[in-house]
Amino acid sequence: MSFRAYDLKTFFEYPALAFKLACFEPFMCSGSQLGLRHRSWYRVQQVLYICGSITLVVNVSALVAGVFVPRATPEAELYSSSDSQVFEVLAVISYFCCGIYKMWTLFWRRHDILRVLEELKDLFPSVAKQRRIAELNESEKGQIGSVGIYRLRYYEEKSRASMRRLTRFIINCYIYYNSVPILQLCYAIVTHQEKIMYRAQANTWYPWHNHNDHSSFIGFMAAFLTQAIAEYVCIVFIVCSENLFCFFTTQMLMHFNYLSSALSALDASAPDALLQLKALISYHNQLLRLVVRINSIFNLTFTLDLIITTFAISLMGLTMVLVNLTSAVMFSAGFSFFLILGYLFCKNGDELIRETMKISPAIFYSNWYEGSYEYRRLIIFFIMRTKAPCEFQAYGYTSLSMETYMRILKLSYQLFTSFRAIE
């Protein structure tokens, strides 16, 4: 079997691509290979990032104003100030809030993210170590005393497929959502309707879109482009955050899997068994510290994701039911987006729990009974320590797991029925 060497940059391909799309490169340091390659473009990226952020703030303000400011446009006749309109605006705002706090987390915690990346880079097995482990396992295959296995290829392909599917899905949702107003306008022109109504993606208020009986095409395009840019900023930062979290989770899964295989392959009767066990315990402590740091970086994101996803699913569903068919078609993209978003971060947390639960059985089913007294004593304390799984938590309130995801869906349905009763 041919040997293939891996490095951390191989796993960081899709997060790096997402940051390039966002024109946001926060991970700059002199010794990092994950930082900017072309510093001459950094100022341009800063300008694009600032312009996109301003557009995002302007669009959110226009969404809020759209509920309270009266408009003398054809849309005002269809969208009166009602609970349906409020639900529609809240559904769109929930999406923008998701992008804003993910952007803020990446910007505010960029130095902590960089430190974690550096630690993962130091912890990642070198090419020489990968080759040595592969040769030892090939020569001692099936024997007790062989070393653990880094499943680099498995986790690289798994994370790549997961991030690729996520990126494509979110981009398709963005294109689908923004193409509906254009298709609606083209249909009105082709069918020669007497009164062509220009309506952008969401029910927003703009100064140039408030004074005439009929909206102009220029005003429509200005509103459409403003919302499209703001949605693009949100979508790319959501992709950045989710891909980065998937990258961190993949690295933790890979290291915990290696720890389990190394513990199960450890020969307690070997002369250096105690030293190997102490090294693996130290390795486990380092992994636990990394999980705590990653959790502290995404604590705000986890908490707000749980809250926003719960409300957004119910609000998107309400908008699909209560408003017109065009809005239902548009908001189906947002509804599926939040369903997948909640599933992904809960699924990653659930995989970490299941992987860390394998450590204790791996120790127990090794030949620990052949070890020395001190070796067996360490094994007992290690088993007691690894009995509770390692998990991502939202400020210690709840863990990220599939059980939490089912609670999100249940609460979203309860909110949907409650809001429907209000309408």
From TrEMBL:
Record carries keyword Isomerase: no
Subcellular location: Cell membrane
Transmembrane parts of this sequence: 47-69, 89-108, 169-190, 217-240, 297-322, 328-346
Keywords: Cell membrane, Membrane, Olfaction, Receptor, Sensory transduction, Transducer, Transmembrane, Transmembrane helix
Keyword Transmembrane annotated: yes
Membrane topology type: Multi-pass membrane protein
GO molecular function, one term: olfactory receptor activity
Pfam families: 7tm_6 (PF02949)
Main location: membrane
One BP annotation, GO: signal transduction
Subunit structure: Interacts with Orco. Complexes exist early in the endomembrane system in olfactory sensory neurons (OSNs), coupling these complexes to the conserved ciliary trafficking pathway.
Family, as annotated: Belongs to the insect chemoreceptor superfamily. Heteromeric odorant receptor channel (TC 1.A.69) family.
Protein's name according to its UniProt entry: Odorant receptor
Chain's gene name: OR69a.2
